[in-house]
Structure formats: C-alpha cells, structure tokens
Amino acid sequence: QNIHLVAKWLSSLEKKLEQHSEGSHQDFRVFISAEPAPSPDSHIIPQGILENSIKITNEAPTGMHANLHKALDNFNQDTLEMCTRENEFKSILFALCYFHAVVAERRKFGPQGWNRSYPFNTGDLTISVNVLYNYLEASSKVPYDDLRYLFGEIMYGGHITDDWDRRLCKTYLEEFIKPEMLEGELLLAPGFPLPGNVDYNGYHQYIDDALPPESPYLYGLHPNAEIGFLTQTSEKLFRVVLEMQPRDTSTGEGGVVTREETVKALLEEMLEKLMDEFNIAELMAKVEERTPYVVVAFQECERMNILTSEIKRSLKELELGLK
C-alpha cells in the first residue's frame, strides 16, 4: 500500500514482480495502491510496473448533481427516522448535504472558490449530522446559532486557515440553515427550493427532477467564474493527448503517415477554410442608419479581422517551421 512513499525501493519491487511472474500460479495477483502524482514530473512509479498493471482509479465526483447524490449516500432511511423531531432534522440534514457539496466542489474554481485548498471530507458531514441529532434531541427549540457555529467554526471551519474563507463558510450556513427553512421558503440555489418531508429515495428523486443544470449559480458564483476552470480542464486534456501521441517522427514502412505530414495536411486544410477579412469601409457604405446593433456588429467584424489575421500569421509561421 502507498508505494508512492517508497521511491527508492520501487526498482526492487519491479525486479521482484518480474521474478514472480515466471513460474507462479496463473491466478496469483499483486494489489498495489498509490496516490496520484500532482504533476507529470512527479511520476515515480517505474514504467514496467505500470505497463503490466490493470489501473483502477477512484475519481471524486464532479458537478453539483454527483456531489449532492454522493453526500446523501452517506445516510439511509433509518438515519432520517432516528430523530424524534423528524421535520427539522430532515430539512437541516438536506441543507447540510447541499452545503457539503458546495464547499467540496468550489475547489474546482481555484482562488475564486477558496483562497486556499482545504481537505473537506465525508467525515465532516457525518459528524455534523450526529451533532445535529444530539442537539435536536436535547433542546426544545432548534438552536440555529449554535448549530451554525459548530458546523462553520469547528467541523468545517477546523480545516479553514484563511479569514475570508471562514467568513464565506459562515455566510453559506447563514443562508442555508435558518428558521425560514421550515416554512418552505428557502432556496438553496436559484430554482432549487429545499424539499419538504419525504423519504430517502424521494430525496434522491427530487435531486434528479428539480436540480437545475450545472452552472456556477449553484455555488453562488457568477458564470464568469467557470472560465478559469474550463481553460485549465482544456489545457490538461490537450496535454494528456499530446503526451499519448507517438514520438517516432521517421517515415515508417508501408507508407505510414508521419506526424509532420499530418500537421502539414491540417495546416493546409485550415488555411483553405479561413475566410477573407471583412472590408469594414465597404460594409459601412452599405449602412443607412448606425443603430446600436450595427455598431456592435462592426466592432465584432473588427475583432474577427484581428483574430483571422493572427490565425493566418501563426499558421504560416508553423508552416515555415515545418519546412
């Protein structure tokens, strides 16, 4: 287990695996576990081990839909029925699941999500629900302030080291856990009200039916917050695709197309597809009245011209590089 911690010994492990692969029972298997490397440069597991292995990865859920289902999966029908004050308990439990999904998934937005990265985990959620149960059983009124303090300053707040992040966590709880939640007026996100008193399967069904499409609005963020995350995801995807491409650039037998030839064909195809630049003076002469829409259209044409000329310039430069 955790072989990423014993970098020096990994070459010995590779030799041992080679020795045991010969003459051992055909059903003999070795199970190895390791944490993923934070970057391609940090890969320390020998290539021989990776090539002979079947890789299984446990990916964290992505998106509000998957995170909310995953948070709710930590409980069952018995959990929902264990408290005598069922209505309050169920409402706060669902709000906690949504809160947990939000704080966990905000990490993908980088500094716009949290100033620092925090290791929130399912243990924080399950312990918070146990605390909720104990407090509801022990008091006649729902102690909203006490619960918010315990969740925001101790359970989840225990991970948080930045003052602004602590303030954000506290604000979330003030929005999600308050007396209005029992009156059916609380919106966890735009278009997603807190569900009423239903059974366990009913909550899962409610998430499937009522949760709006994935967007930064579900986390209380502006849609522009997604730009950085999507850019990073695209770059990662392209990097992986490039890493997986064959490195051999020599001409193979049987007329195998080389990398350079493929790139050249793509270049020519792109240059053919590129349209000519807009003639702004000619377009302006055709216009009788310069309404706001027309002005915006001209601005877009100018920007498109800049983009087109830059694409042409870079493609020609790449073509010269290939030659």
From TrEMBL:
Identify one Gene Ontology CC term for this UniProt entry.
Answer: dynein complex
Q: Which UniProt keywords apply?
A: Coiled coil
List each copy of the Dynein heavy chain region D6 P-loop domain by range: 1-57
InterPro entries, A to Z: AAA_lid_11, AAA_lid_11_sf, DHC, Dynein_C, Dynein_heavy_D6_P-loop, P-loop_NTPase
User: Any keyword Coiled coil?
Assistant: yes
Task: Give every Dynein heavy chain AAA lid domain span.
Answer: 89-225
Task: Tell me which Gene Ontology terms the entry assigns under biological process.
Answer: microtubule-based movement
Q: Which PANTHER family match?
A: DYNEIN AXONEMAL HEAVY CHAIN 17-RELATED (PTHR46961:SF16), DYNEIN HEAVY CHAIN 1, AXONEMAL-LIKE PROTEIN (PTHR46961)
- Name recorded for this polypeptide: Dynein heavy chain 9, axonemal
Q: Which organism is it from?
A: Phoenicopterus ruber ruber
